[in-house]
Amino acid sequence: xxxxxxxxxxxxxxxxxxxxxxxxxxxxxxxxxxxxxxxxxxxxxxxxxxxxxxxxxxxxxxxxxxxxxxxxxxxxxxxxxxxxxxxxxxxxxxxxxxxxxxxxxxxxxxxxxxxxxxxxxxxxxxxxxxxxxxxxxxxxxxxxxxxxxxxxxxxxxxxxxxxxxxxxxxxxxxxxxxxxxxxxxxxxxxxxx
Length: 193
What we know:
Layout: H1 27-39, E1 47-51, H2 57-64, E2 69-74, H3 77-94, E3 99-103, H4 106-116, E4 120-125, H5 133-143, E5 147-158, E6 170-178, E7 181-188
Parallel strand pairs: 1-2, 1-4, 2-3, 4-5
Antiparallel strand pairs: 5-7, 6-7
């Protein structure tokens, strides 16, 4: 079972997705990631998307550490139920509705967000390993219209995966490897109006 590491809901135990269809982010990776995000003041008041959310652990961690709105996007029914339970637990602890879980594909969600014109400040992406490089590139391209200027994208993939093909509007900033897991960071550099 995972947990919220720090912040207002720090120490809360989280429900995990049963089976082996998802790969939970290890506490080591999560601690390093959120230490970096806090040091760069990326969380306080941010609107956060957790795409391919799994248990929603990254999104609820962001809520615990000061994000003002978090949406967990998950298609798999079992994982969605876990996202909903973890969101409800953290919202109850925070005494306000910060985290919401949405069922559907990332592609459908991003298309609807593009229509609504909403802007996001921070995006976590932990797509399933079988997602092809071409599908990942298409998702990154679809993500750009929903991002605010200066938004940060954090992509978690297998260390055996190649660096993603970032769209022109996203500049790769850095890469950090943690054993089998690699985090790629990119920032919005321009948004065409």
